[in-house]
Amino acid sequence: MSDQRQWHRLFGMSLIDFFTGLPVTVEVEKDLSLKQQFLDVVVVKKVAGPLSCQMPDGFEDLADHNLISFKSYQEALDAWAVTELLSYYVNYRKLVSQDRNDLQPEAEFRLFAVCVRFPQNLHRRWPLERVQEGVYLVRSFAPDVRVLVVHQLPQERQNALLHLFSAQAEQVRFGAQQYRPRSTETSTFLLQLFDRYRQEGTPMPYTKEEFIREAKQKMSKDPDIRQLVLEDPDTVDQVIRQAPAEKRLEGLSPEQFLAGLTPEMRAVLRQQLQATDETPGTS
After folding, report:
1. Residues 20 and 151 placed together within one structural domain of the fold
2. Domain tally for the chain?
3. What share of residues in the chain are helix, strand, coil (percent, to 5)?
4. Which of 23, 81, 114, 205 is buried most deeply by CB count within 10 Å?
5. Is the separation of the CB atoms in 31 and 12 below 8 Å?
6. Whose CA is closest to 88, among 38, 141, 13?
7. In this predicted model, what pLDDT tens digit does every residue of 38-53 receive, in sequence order?
8. DSSP-derived 3-state class of residue 66
């Protein structure tokens, strides 16, 4: 697999995690022809109406079918890349329409181009219309192409997933600290992502080891991500040891609490209780 294709696959895996538990289907490297032309990601909504989570900037109003092209920090989003996305749209629309003479309405499709750096060459060819910070429209086609520039997106929690693919260390760190995984496979994907940065020699002060350490801390505090799976075989023991005492005791019955005490600990507890009972003014 080529280096660039690995980046695109990691991006697809990130969207699979983000949409976990939501009524959508995410397909990575969608094959659109017999000659294997791969669309990076397609997100298909299963129900009408908005989804029950805050979407990254630019993705707020998903259509029924959302075609996404991704360009890593090593690639340029240029006119050819947009033309290619449009060709994928033509093939895909035919593919999902039952009657090729009566295609599904254009309004049911939306095109996204996610890039890390601002596409200067594309902007010179087809001016980008700014919608909000980091989000643009190319209106030279039907349908419009929505362009998301990772480096320009605000550092806010809804954008944490996209910041993981930034070439700026500060944004990567923000993404890793703020993104809340939704599936148990996410830790594997994130570790692969950090390894990818390391292999390409990108200076990343936020290391894999830092990620593991902070993830353990999050697991001990945040019930939403307790299922996060890490590579370390002793993760559970470490998390238990790092968790505050009140969290470790939370939910235990008196019998369960006493069963977990050593004889020495029981003797100390008995002495403390006796001293409390003998203290004047206590009951």
Report:
1. yes
2. 2
3. 45, 15, 40
4. 114
5. no
6. 38
7. 789 999 998 888 888 8
8. strand
Residue 80 is predicted with a pLDDT of 93
Identify the pLDDT of residue 215.
Answer: 55
**Are the C-beta atoms of 111 and 85 separated by less than 8 Å?**
yes
CB 69 within 8 A of CB 84: yes
Distance from chain centroid for Cα 223: 18
Identify the domain containing residue 255 by its residue range: 249-275
> How far apart are alpha carbons 169 and 53 in whole angstroms?
27
Q: Is residue 257 part of a domain?
A: yes
Q: Could you say which residues of the chain have pLDDT below 70? A: 1-4, 31-37, 184-191, 194-283
The domain boundary residue, chosen from 167, 199, 218: 167
The CA-CA-CA angle for residues 40, 42, 45, to 5°, reads: 165
pLDDT digits (tens, 9 = 90+) for 19-39: 888 888 888 877 665 456 678
Token pair belonging to 57: 């900037």
**Segments of the chain assigned E as strands:** 24-31, 38-45, 65-71, 109-115, 129-132, 135-138, 145-149
Q: Is residue 172 part of a domain?
A: no
Inside any domain, residue 184: no
Q: Is residue 240 part of a domain?
A: no
Mapped onto helix, strand or coil, the DSSP state of residue 39 is strand
Would you call 197 helix, strand, or coil by DSSP? helix
The SS3 assignment for 107 reads helix
- pTM attached to this predicted model: 0.64
Supply 183's token pair.
């599936």
Give residue 7's pLDDT.
79
Q: Please give the backbone phi and psi of residue 197, each rounded to the nearest 5 degrees, phi first.
A: -60, -45
Same domain, 256 and 159: no
Cα gap 22→276, rounded to integer Å: 53
